[in-house]
Write a structure and sequence with these properties.
3-oxoacyl-[acyl-carrier-protein] synthase activity; single chain; alpha+beta; Thiol Ester Dehydrase, Chain A; Thiolase-like; 559 residues; PKS_Beta-ketoAc_synthase_dom; 6-stranded mixed β-sheet; ApeP-like_dehydratase
Length: 559
C-alpha cells in the first residue's frame, strides 16, 4: 500500500510559505543570521522565523506557545485540504503525529525570569505549555479530530519517526489520513545546552569543511497531509535504527545510520543507485560529518548529489527531518523539470579526511526531473531515521535483489505455504505477497473451525493473523527454495477488534505487514483484518522463529 504526501505547509528561516521557501532555497539564500535573542551578551547565527505568526489567544492557556503558533502557521497553508479530508473520511479516521523537542520551553523560561524579578510566575503561564504532546493535542483540537494524536520526541530524528508512524497508521488501516511532520521553536535552553557541548558555531555552520566548528540552531514547522490518495510525491520508504553508542556522539563506524538507510531503501524497493539526491543530516560537527560521509560513500559512492541544508535553515532539532523532507518535496514537484537541487552552502575548503562527496553547488541541477530523494536524521542516543521520497511521475526502479516479487493476481492455496493440514488451516487463500507484506482471505462458513453455526468470535482474529504471518514465512522460504519450517512461535501480541464476532457469510481480508526482522529470528508484524470495506481488527505481533524448534523446546540451542 502506497502513501502519499498530498499537501505541504512550511515555515522556517527561509520563509513563511511554500513559494517564499522555494524561491530562497533554489537561489541559495540563507536564513541563518546573527542575533543575541537566545544568548544574551553573545551573538550567534540562528535560523529564526521572522514573519508574523498566527495568534494563539483562542487556544486554552496550556496550548498558548510559540511552538504551537509555528504549527498553526504551517497548518494554515494546507487547512482547506485537511478540512476536506476530515469531511471525506470522518473525524475519527484522521490522525495527527508530529515530532518536537522544545514544545513550550521558551514560555517556561520567560515565566521563571518573571518570577526571579517579581516573585511570581508570569501571568498567563501554564505548566501544560511545555508538554511535549502539546502540538499534537492542539492540532487535533483545532481541527476537531478524533483519530490518534500523539508526538514523537527523540531529538533530531523526531519528525522523521513521526512521519514513519503516520504511514504505519494508514497502512494498518487505523487512519485514512494523517497530519504529520514536526515543529520546534527557539529557546535559550537548547542554545545553552548545545553550547555546553561545545557544538555551537559562532559563524554560519560549515558542513563537510575542514573549517567546520558546529551547528546553528533554528526553528520551524513543516506539516504534510498523508493519505493513500495518489499525489505527485510518495513517502516511498523509511528506515529506523537505534545504536545507543553514546548519549550525544554518533557511532564513528555509522552502523546504525547504515542500517536505517538500507532499511529505507528496502522498504521503497530501491537500490542505492536509484537515489538521485540525499539531504544529509550534515550538522557541521566534527563527528557527525565524518560518520555520515563515510556511510554515504560506502553505500552510494561519491557520485550521488548530496547537500546539507542546515546552513540555510539552521538545525531545527525536532522539526529538522520534516523541514528537510519539505525541501525534498519541493524539489520533487512536477514543475522542477531541470531537477534543481537544494544547495550545499560552505566555504569550499574540503576536509581531506572525509570522502569527496558530490556536494551540490549553488544553482546545481540534475538536468532532468528528480525521481528519488533520501533525507537522513541522526539524533542523540543513536536514534536514527531515514526517509525516501519519490516522484510518482517517474518510472519506477527495479526492486532490490532481496525484495521478492509480488504474487500474481490469481489466488494461491494457503495450504501450500503452511506447515498445517486439514481443519488446522484456518484461512482459504493468499491473495498477494511480497518481501514484507502478505494478504490472505477467508470466508466464514457455518462449518468453519470455531464457528458456532452463526459466527466466529472476534478473538479468533488473532489466530487468522498468526497464520497469515506463518504463510508469509512459508512464502519467503519457497522463494528461497527452502522447506517450510514447522514451529513458527508467537510472542507478545496486542489485539483489538471493533466487532464482537465475524458472522457466517462474511469475507475477511487478513493483512500482515513486517516492520522489523532481526538476524536472531525475532521480528514484528503489524496486522489488520478488513471486512466490507472497513478495518474490524488490528494487532501488533512479535514473532520468534528458531532454526530448530524441537531443539529450542527441549532447552537446547536453536541455531
Amino acid at each position: 500500500m502506497n502513501v502519499y504526501l498530498n499537501e505541504c505547509g512550511i515555515v522556517c528561516a527561509l520563509g513563511s510559505c511554500l513559494e517564499e521557501v522555494r524561491a530562497n532555497l533554489f537561489a541559495g539564500r540563507s536564513g541563518v543570521l546573527p542575533t543575541a535573542d537566545c544568548s544574551p551578551g553573545r551573538e550567534l547565527p540562528l535560523g529564526q522565523v521572522r514573519g508574523a505568526l498566527p495568534s494563539v489567544a483562542h487556544l486554552p492557556p496550556a496550548q498558548r506557545s510559540r511552538n504551537n503558533a509555528l504549527a498553526l502557521a504551517a497548518l494554515a497553508q494546507i487547512r482547506p485540504a485537511v478540512d476536506a479530508a476530515v469531511a471525506r473520511f470522518g473525524a475519527h479516521r484522521v490522525g495527527v503525529v508530529v515530532g518536537t523537542s522544545t514544545s513550550g520551553i521558551a514560555e517556561t523560561e520567560r515565566a521563571l525570569m518573571h518570577r526571579a524579578a517579581h516573585g511570581e510566575l508570569a501571568p498567563g503561564f501554564h505548566y501544560g505549555q511545555q508538554e511535549m504532546g502539546s502540538p499534537a493535542a492542539m492540532l487535533a483540537d483545532e481541527l476537531g479530530l478524533e483519530g490518534p494524536a500523539y508526538a514523537h520526541s527523540s531529538a533530531c530524528s523526531s519528525s522523521a519517526k513521526a512521519m514513519a508512524s503516520a504511514a504505519r497508521l494508514i497502512r494498518m488501516g487505523l487512519c485514512d489520513a494523517v497530519l504529520t511532520g514536526g515543529v520546534d521553536s527557539l529557546c535559550a535552553f537548547t542554545v545553552a545546552g548545545f553550547s555546553a557541548l561545545e557544538s555551537v558555531s559562532a559563524e554560519r555552520c560549515n558542513p563537510m569543511s575542514a573549517n567546520r566548528h558546529g551547528i546553528n540552531i533554528g526553528e520551524g514547522a513543516a506539516l504534510f497531509l498523508l493519505t493513500r490518495e495518489p499525489a505527485a510525491v510518495a513517502l516511498a520508504g523509511w528506515g529506523e535504527s537505534s545504536d545507543g553508542h553514546h548519549m550525544s556522539a554518533p557511532d564513528p563506524a555509522g552502523e546504525g545510520a547504515r542500517i536505517a538507510m538500507t532499511e529505507a531503501l528496502r522498504r521503497a524497493g530501491l537500490r542505492p543507485a536509484d537515489i538521485d539526491y540525499i539531504n544529509m543530516h550534515g550538522t557541521a560537527t566534527q563527528q557527525n560529518d565524518a560518520m555520515e560521509s563515510k556511510v554515504i560513500a560506502g553505500l552510494f559512492g561519491c557520485e550521488v548529489a548530496v547537500s546539507s541544508t542546515k546552513p540555510i535553515t539552521g538545525h531545527t532539532l525536532g522539526a529538522a527531518a520534516a523541514v528537510e523532507a519539505a525541501l525534498c518535496w519541493l524539489a520533487l514537484q512536477p514543475g522542477n523539470g531541470q531537477g534543481a537541487l537544494p544547495p550545499h552552502l560552505w566555504d569550499g575548503a574540503a576536509d581531506a579526511a572525509l570522502p569527496a562527496l558530490n556536494l551540490v553547488p549553488a544553482g546545481g541541477t540534475l538536468g532532468r526531473p528528480l525521481r528519488h530523494a533520501m533525507s537522513t536524521s541522526f539524533a542523540f542516543g543513536g536514534s536514527n531515521a531515514v526517509l525516501v521520497l519519490s516522484s510518482t511521475g517517474s518510472a519506477g526502479a527495479e526492486p532490490m535483489a532481496e525484495t521478492a516479487a509480488a504474487l500474481p493476481p490469481a489466488a494461491v492455496p494457503i495450504a501450500d505455504l503452511l506447515p498445517h493440514s486439514g481443519r488446522m488451516v484456518l484461512l482459504d487463500t493468499v491473495v498477494s505477497a511480497g518481501n514484507d507484506d502478505l494478504c490472505t482471505e477467508v470466508t466464514i462458513r457455518p462449518d468453519s473451525m470455531f464457528c458456532d453455526g452463526a459466527a466466529v468470535g472476534a478473538w479468533v482474529g488473532i489466530e487468522y493473523m498468526a497464520q497469515a504471518i506463518a504463510a508469509h514465512a512459508g512464502w519467503l522460504a519457497r522463494q528461497r527454495g527452502d522447506a517450510v519450517k514447522v514451529g513458527f512461535l508467537l510472542g507478545s501480541r496486542k489485539y483489538e477488534a471493533s466487532v464482537p464476532a465475524f458472522p457466517a457469510g462474511s469475507v475477511l481480508r487478513v493483512h500482515a505487514h513486517r516492520v522489523l526482522q532481526g538476524d536472531n529470528g525475532l521480528g514484528a508484524f503489524e496486522c489488520r483484518i478488513d471486512s466490507e470495506g472497513g478495518t474490524v481488527a488490528t494487532a501488533t505481533v512479535t514473532v520468534y522463529q528458531p532454526d530448530n524448534v524441537n531443539e529450542f523446546l527441549q532447552g537446547g540451542i536453536a541455531g
